[in-house]
């Protein structure tokens, strides 16, 4: 039986034959191509697997499914453009005292907490209260994720990475970091933590509770993790760099939802790899970092001999 996924791939292949060299795409071609990509990303069609793509975002021939080994397990990650919540994953979770009476989240919204007007709205980019919807954010962000959907294997290293197939200007929202909302677990391996992003959970704590001796203290660590090992958006393929060109931020879509999103820190050229900084703890835990930057925090032996 032909699945939605087969159908989309067949359409993409036909389209590729039609336009010949993707580098010569006209504006009309690009618009059509983007419409096809959007079909690939349409929600509600069941799992769509990630495929190795060429520098233009087309699936390679024959389409090769991305397989990753994380924490000694092999996964064929699935594409998911929105977070999912499964209450069963929270049955054994104990809410920290900080949040008051113990109450396990029962819904995606409860899990992420209420949108805070102090966070930036990802739809209108305002720090003021606004009435944007999650749907409006999706429309705004569409152009960003269409420019960064190509997943390629990095020669020599063998890992997959996320690459730009179009020019991306500084400040562009590339995509939401999405996955399954699960309790944060400090015991996950370093491999696994590369596929996690965390958010403070539950009803949003009152900032007044963060004042000790008249000083504002940082919020406690996030208690909900966005786990993208099995399902997630394309940005789950972003690798670490000590000098990244993108970063994760927390934001809100109007009054509807809180989310973690990826924003370009500078202009990014077509075919450039899109990277974020996984943080000091992560580089500390690694034997060596492969980012290759002059200012790398954990350069390998080879690069030290060169410098
Ligand atoms: Zn807004
Ligand atoms: Zn590095």
Walk me through the structure.
Keywords: Chromosome, Metal-binding, Methyltransferase, S-adenosyl-L-methionine, Transferase, Zinc. One of its GO terms (molecular function) is metal ion binding. This is SET domain-containing protein. It comes from Massarina eburnea CBS 473.64. It is found in: Chromosome. The chain is an alpha+beta fold. It has a domain at 82-276: Beta Complex (Beta-clip-like), CATH 2.170.270. Helices cover 21% and strands 20% of the residues. It has a four-stranded mixed beta sheet. Strand 15 and strand 16 (257-264) form a beta hairpin. Helix 1 (4-19) packs antiparallel against helix 2. Bound molecules: zinc ion (2 copies). One zinc ion binds at residues 242, 289, 291, 293, 296-298.
Summarize the structure.
With 307 residues, this protein is an alpha+beta fold. It contains seven helices and 17 strands.
Q: Considering DSSP H and I runs of 4 or more, what fraction of the residues is helical?
A: 10-25%
Q: Which kinds of small molecule does this entry bind, naming each only once?
A: zinc ion
Termini Cα gap:
57 Å
Mean pLDDT metric: 81
List low-confidence stretches: none
Rg (C-alpha, Å): 20 Å
Biggest β-sheet: strands ordered side by side in the sheet: 4-8-12-9
DSSP helical segment count: 7
CATH classification class of one domain:
Mainly Beta
> Sheet with the most strands?
4 strands, mixed
CATH-level-4 superfamily name of one domain: SET domain
Number of strands: 17
User: Per CATH, what is the topology of one domain?
Assistant: Beta-clip-like
Subcellular location: Chromosome
Pfam families: SET
Main location: nucleus
GO molecular function, one term: metal ion binding
């Amino acid at each position: 039986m032909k699945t939605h996924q087969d159908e989309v791939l067949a359409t993409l292949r036909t389209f590729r034959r039609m336009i010949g060299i993707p580098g010569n795409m006209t504006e009309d071609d690009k618009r059509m191509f983007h419409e096809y990509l959007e079909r690939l990303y349409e929600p509600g069609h069941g799992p769509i697997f990630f495929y190795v793509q060429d520098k233009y975002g087309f699936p390679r021939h024959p389409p090769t499914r991305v397989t990753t080994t994380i924490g000694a397990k092999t996964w064929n990650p699935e594409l998911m453009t929105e977070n999912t919540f499964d209450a069963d994953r929270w049955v054994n979770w104990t809410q920290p005292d900080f949040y008051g009476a113990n109450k396990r989240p029962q819904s995606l919204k409860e899990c992420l907490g209420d949108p805070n007007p102090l966070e930036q709205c990802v739809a209108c980019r305002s720090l003021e209260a606004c009435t944007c919807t999650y749907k409006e954010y999706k429309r705004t962000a569409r152009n960003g994720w269409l420019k960064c959907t190509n997943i390629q294997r990095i020669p020599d290293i063998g890992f997959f990475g996320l690459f730009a197939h179009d020019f991306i200007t500084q400040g562009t929202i590339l995509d939401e970091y999405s996955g399954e909302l699960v309790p944060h677990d400090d015991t996950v391996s370093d491999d696994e933590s590369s596929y996690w992003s965390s958010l403070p959970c539950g009803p949003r704590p009152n900032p007044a509770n963060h004042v000790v001796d008249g000083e504002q203290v940082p919020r406690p660590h996030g208690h909900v993790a966005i786990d993208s090992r099995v399902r997630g958006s394309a940005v789950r393929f972003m690798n670490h760099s000590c000098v990244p060109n993108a970063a994760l931020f927390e934001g809100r879509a109007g009054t509807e939802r809180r989310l973690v999103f990826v924003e370009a820190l500078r202009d990014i050229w077509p075919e450039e790899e899109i990277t974020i900084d996984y943080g000091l703890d992560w580089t500390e835990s690694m034997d060596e970092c492969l980012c290759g930057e002059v200012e790398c925090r954990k350069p390998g032996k080879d690069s030290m001999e060169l410098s």
